[in-house]
């Protein structure tokens, strides 16, 4: 997750492979999103690098630094997984972000978020989509409680995918910001 300031113009990196540890991984820009709080707004680029490795092992080297100067929000690297998929070596158990792909009604989505965070103590952020335009996102608090965010699409006609919303919320919280401060998140090209 790469936060970009309003004056900065950071395009996607080249899509060619790069050498990381034991494997060659393609670098892919998944999407760009726009976020808004009550007082400010910004853009973030989400890049997805696949995990790979020899004979059932998984590896990922350190990503290259971002090409732009540091801003007020630092860029964030995290591991995400779908809790409904069985991964090799319990990848969901190690994930920083869990994103369910199965929509639930609002009350069910919030309950599922809480269940995911309780069941996966190493996870900081979990998201469950609702039918329609939103998703519930939960963030593990310092005292073990859960703080919730439900960024709406707001002025956006399309919603950002729950993976993008959860990744942005994770990066936001890792930067020391309150999850509830995010008012809306939408695709940058909407």
Distance between the termini: 19 Å
Number of helices: 3
Radius of gyration from the alpha-carbon trace, in angstroms: 16 Å
Strand content: 25-35%
Topology pattern, helix = H, strand = E:
EEEEEHEHEEEHE
**Shape estimate:** globular
- Low-pLDDT ranges: 6-27
Structural class, by secondary structure, is: alpha+beta
Number of structural domains:
1
Report the count of strand segments: 10
**Main sheet?**
5 strands, antiparallel
Helix content: 10-25%
Mean pLDDT: 76
Q: What attributes does this structure have?
A:
single chain; 190 residues; alpha+beta; 5-stranded mixed beta sheet; 3 helices; 16% helix
Secondary structure elements and their pairing?
Blueprint: E1 2-4, E2 17-20, E3 23-36, E4 41-49, E5 80-81, H1 91-94, E6 97-99, H2 106-119, E7 125-129, E8 135-140, E9 146-149, H3 162-174, E10 184-187
Parallel strand pairs: 5-6, 6-7
Antiparallel strand pairs: 1-4, 2-3, 3-4, 3-10, 7-8, 8-9
């Amino acid at each position: 997750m790469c936060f970009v300031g309003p004056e900065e113009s950071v395009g996607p990196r080249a899509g060619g492979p790069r050498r990381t540890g034991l494997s060659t991984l393609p670098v892919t820009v998944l999407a760009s999103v726009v976020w808004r709080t009550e007082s400010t707004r910004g853009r973030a680029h989400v890049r997805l690098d696949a995990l790979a490795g020899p004979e059932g092992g998984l590896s990922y080297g350190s990503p290259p630094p971002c090409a732009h100067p540091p801003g007020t929000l630092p860029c964030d690297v995290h591991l995400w997984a779908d809790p409904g998929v069985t991964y090799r070596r319990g990848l969901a158990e190690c994930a920083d972000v869990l994103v369910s792909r199965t929509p639930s009604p609002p009350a069910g989505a919030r309950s599922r978020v809480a269940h995911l965070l309780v069941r996966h103590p190493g996870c900081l952020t979990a998201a469950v989509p609702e039918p329609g335009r939103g998703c519930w996102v939960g963030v593990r608090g310092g005292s073990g409680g859960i703080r919730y965010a439900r960024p709406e699409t707001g002025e956006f006609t399309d919603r950002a995918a729950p993976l993008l919303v959860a990744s942005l919320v994770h990066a936001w919280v890792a930067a020391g910001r309150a999850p509830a401060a995010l008012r809306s998140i939408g695709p940058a090209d909407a």
